[in-house]
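Database export, one record per block. Field names are fixed; values are copied verbatim from the stored entry.
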Amino acid sequence: MKLLDQLYPKGKRAERKKKAWRNIAFLDPGLTGSGIALWYDLQVGAATPPVRREALSFRSGTMHTRAIKYTQAVRNFLARYLPDSLVIEFPTAWPGSAKSYTSIQRGDLFKLTYLVGMIAGVAQWKSPCLEIAFVTPARWKGQLDKLKVRKRIYRALRDDYPNHVEDAVGMGLSAAGVL
């Protein structure tokens, strides 16, 4: 069974076959900021905070220069903590969303897809045994908006996280079935 299907089974009553993941990182990439969170032991049904988390922000330079900086920062994180698996939020257009349509018109969705591909390519090249999965926002959070995700994370962990780290933590809690 693929990692993505193990973490986020389809259907409301879908059963998670696996009950724990060891050394798993979740990445929320962004053009102006990214967040990464790592669990050494992510248990289904248990709301545990990540053992490591990092907010990344590079705002100066061209889009390509920032993409290189983000890629290097993620590569360094992976080299430091050696996760077995990396789950990356994959950009997608939300049907009927004006914000999503605007990001397509401005080219931001394509730039973000470029960043994700660059990060995944370098991560796989530097760590050939690293298992990488891509998850869409709709798959890990459904229709929840940013505020609802923030409130659910706080309710589960009693802690606040910076913007993109918050989504990385939310991806992990969703995989554990406690978001």
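Remark 1: The CA atoms of residues 29 and 116 lie 7 Å apart.
Remark 2: The chain has one domain: 17-175.
End of record.
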